[in-house]
Amino acid sequence: MIPWKEIDRAEVPGNEGEVILLVRDREFSIRTAGTELMNSRIHGSEDALAELSCSRLNPQVPWQILVGGLGMGYTLAATLEQSGPDAEIFVSELIPAVVRWNREHLGHLAGNPLADPRVRVEEEDVVKTIGKEKSVWNAILLDVDNGPAGLTRKSNDRLYGKSGLKKSFDALKPGGILAVWSCGIDEVFTRRLKLAGFKTKVLSVRARKSGKGSKHTIWLGIKP
Ligand SMILES: C[S@@+](CC[C@H](N)C(=O)[O-])C[C@H]1O[C@@H](n2cnc3c(N)ncnc32)[C@H](O)[C@@H]1O
User: Fold this and answer.
1) d(CA 171, CA 211)
2) Please, are residues 113 and 73 in contact by the beta-carbon 8 Å criterion?
3) Is the pTM of this model over 0.70?
4) Burial call 121-158: b when 16+ CB within 10 Å, e when fewer
5) DSSP code of 106?
6) Segment (H or E) for 46
7) Domains (range + CATH), the chain
8) 222 close to 201: Cβ distance less than 8 angstroms
9) Of all atoms in ligand 1, which is nearest to the CA of residue 76?
10) Nearest alpha carbon to residue 96 among 124, 117, 55
């Protein structure tokens, strides 16, 4: 068994621990607090987050899509694949080192999505990005934790509570979609999405593109 080798580590802003980038042969891993946030070999459900959302958007209009966070760029790459030439894809990534890692070590994994002219990346908390403007996004694709509870940082809980969901609702255009990735089911979160006014779908998606592996959950909250 080839041992993991640390490439770099960085602090999570707000003094909320650190993230570590590791490599083993051609496999990469981003970890925080002893838990794997992302592994380069398994990204079927991260791709599905974009595919399931974009397939429900109106193809006649150019899309403005917010992706939070960057990770290894798979959700971003899948969003680009689904989007037309006039789309604008905005990425909010909390940890500056993750953006740098994508430029220096990880870009090739998902086909260098940061180099696409439709992409703008900001080193910013996605909570802040969502709160900036109303009725601007066709879709907000959230994969910042392992589910609707702060893992990367405790303060991410703000995204999944009543007021956080209201902010996402307000930031979406009518017909817009809030998509949330999770490693498991959470009935309370489903109810919360409905209470926030979203028409809600809960989808079970395989971790691997091959249709194998564990099952992950994706919520699609559609703003009527
Ligand atoms: C599980 S990874 C995302 C994986 C990504 N979907 C992919 O396809 O590779 C989570 C990412 O969200 C970032 N993140 C965590 N909290 C965030 C926040 N509040 N705002 C923006 N990015 C955040 C982490 O630094 C990490 O890069």
Assistant:
1) 33
2) yes
3) yes
4) bebbbbbebbbeeeebbbbbbbbbbbbbebbbbeebeb
5) I
6) helix 44-54
7) 42-222 (3.40.50.150)
8) yes
9) 8
10) 124
H or E element in which residue 132 lies: helix 126-132
Which of 70, 82, 105, 182 best tests ligand 1's pocket when mutated (most atoms within 8 Å of CB)?
A: 70
Average pLDDT over residues 197-217: 92
d(CA 70, CA 73): 5
Let me know: does 205 contact 213? Beta carbons within 8 Å. no
Mean pLDDT of 87-108: 98
Which of 28, 37, 128, 142 to mutate for ligand 1's pocket (most ligand atoms within 8 Å of CB)? Answer: 37
Cα 79 → chain centroid: 11
